[in-house]
Design brief:
With 226 residues, the protein is mainly beta. Helices cover 11% and strands 28% of the residues. It has one domain: Gamma Fibrinogen, Chain A, domain 1, CATH 3.90.215.10. Strands 1, 2, 3, 4, 5, 6, 7, 8 and 11 form a 9-stranded antiparallel sheet that branches. The protein has a two-stranded antiparallel sheet with strand order 9-10.
Length: 226
C-alpha cells in the first residue's frame, strides 16, 4: 500500500487495491489505509462478528472473509509481503468501554509455510504504544512461535490444543498473552470474559474482549531502519 500511495498521493482514507509483492506468483486484493502520507496494508480486521474466525490451517493460509468488513488476509500473503523488506506492525484495539489503544512493533515478518508461518517480531515501540506489549514481552514472548490452528497444533503445551480450547488461531505459546482471532463477544459479557475465548490483549485488560481490532503493516522508512 506504500507503493499504491506513492503512485497516487491524492488518495485519502482507505480503499481496496490490487497488488503483487515481489516474490508472489500472482496479484491479489488488499485493503489499504492512508494516514499521514503513509500507506498501511491491513492484514486483519474485526468489527462486528459477522465473519467466523474459527477456521483451519488452509483457510488461515489462503485468507478468508470480506475485505470490506471482517477478514484475515492470509498467512501466505502476509509472508510474501513481509519477505520484501523490513516491516512495521501496528495493532489498533478498540475496547467496549474506552478509546482506541495501539501497539506498534518496529520489526514484523512471517516465515514461510515450511516453517509453519513462524512469527518474527521485535522492537516494541513503548513510546507511542498505549495498549502494552502482549506479543514480545518477557512474560510470554511469541517471537519465533509457529502459527497454530485447531487442525495444526504447534503451541508449547503438550497436554492442550490452544486453538481448539480458545476457539481461534494464533501464535500460541502457553497459551497466550494475546489472541485477536477468537470468538466475537459483545458487551456487557465482553467486559468480564473469564472464559478468555474472545479478542484478547492481556497487557491492556486480562478479561476484556475487544470491540474492534485492526492489524496493519507497512515498510520501514529509511530513517527507521537499524
Amino acid at each position: 500500500c506504500d507503493d499504491v500511495y506513492s503512485q497516487q498521493p491524492s488518495l485519502v482514507h482507505e480503499g481496496i487495491f490490487r497488488i503483487k509483492p515481489r516474490f508472489a506468483s500472482e496479484s491479489f486484493d488488499v485493503k489499504c489505509i492512508f494516514e499521514n502520507n503513509i500507506g498501511w496494508t491491513v492484514i486483519q480486521h474485526r468489527i462486528n462478528g459477522t465473519i467466523d474466525f474459527y477456521h483451519g490451517w488452509n483457510d488461515y493460509k489462503n485468507g478468508f472473509g470480506d475485505l470490506r468488513t471482517e477478514f484475515w488476509l492470509g498467512n501466505e500473503k502476509i509472508h510474501l509481503l513481509t519477505n520484501q523488506g523490513k516491516y512495521i506492525l501496528r495493532i489498533d484495539l478498540q475496547p467496549w468501554d474506552s478509546h482506541i489503544r495501539i501497539a506498534e512493533y518496529g520489526q514484523f515478518a512471517l516465515d514461510n509455510e515450511s516453517q509453519n508461518y513462524k512469527l518474527q517480531i521485535s522492537q516494541f515501540r513503548s513510546n507511542i504504544s498505549t495498549a502494552g506489549d502482549s506479543l514480545s514481552s518477557s512474560w510470554d514472548n511469541a517471537n519465533g512461535i509457529p502459527f497454530s490452528t485447531y487442525d495444526h497444533d504447534y503451541d508449547n503445551l503438550f497436554y492442550d490444543n490452544c486453538a481448539l480450547t480458545y476457539h481461534g488461531a494464533w501464535w500460541f505459546t502457553n497459551c497466550f498473552q494475546s489472541h485477536l482471532n477468537g470468538a466475537y463477544i459483545r458487551s456487557p459479557l465482553a467486559l468480564q470474559n473469564t472464559a478468555r475465548n474472545g479478542l484478547h490483549w492481556n497487557s491492556y485488560a486480562l478479561y476484556h474482549s475487544m470491540k474492534h481490532t485492526t492489524m496493519r503493516i507497512r515498510r520501514q522508512n529509511t530513517f527507521e531502519m537499524n
